[in-house]
Amino acid sequence: VQLQAYGGGLVQAGGSLRLSCGASGRTFSNYAMGWFRQAPGKAREFVASIDWSGGSTYYADSVKGRFTISRDNAKNTVHLQMNSLKPEDTAVYYCAAPKAAGQWGPYDYWGQGTLVTVSS
Q1: Span 24-52, average pLDDT
Q2: How far apart, in whole angstroms, are the C-alpha atoms of residue 6 and residue 89?
Q3: pLDDT tens per residue across span 5-21
Q4: CA distance 85 to 56
Q5: Residues 104 and 51 sit within 8 Å (Cβ to Cβ)
Q6: Residue 77: Cβ within 10 Å count
Q7: Are 25 and 2 in contact (CB under 8 A)?
Q8: pLDDT band, residue 105 (cuts 50/70/90)
Q9: Which of 88, 78, 83, 26 is nearest to 57 (CA)?
Q10: Which of 30, 42, 51, 105 shows the smallest number of beta carbons within 10 Å?
């Protein structure tokens, strides 16, 4: 299983970015997907997740109402739309997937990460 995240960059506070993660190596639509992030000097933290069909989503309280996770099973891609960005959203963002089909976790496969920098 290979995951590749992209779409990061530098944005001003209040701006928006859309991250994407392409997956290959298995039937994408059978697996939940998640986004995590790691800020400098901090532990990796959960951001958002989506089930295999796209019908259920979960968000960290810190991003609820600002970020939206979605997926396109026809294109084997999961997205993270990030609006109203804050400097504290600055981090390397990772997409991840569990090994087991039909399960929310644990997350066994990780992409390489894409850097999001939010300037004040």
Answers
A1: 96
A2: 16
A3: 999 999 999 999 999 99
A4: 23
A5: yes
A6: 17
A7: yes
A8: confident
A9: 78
A10: 42
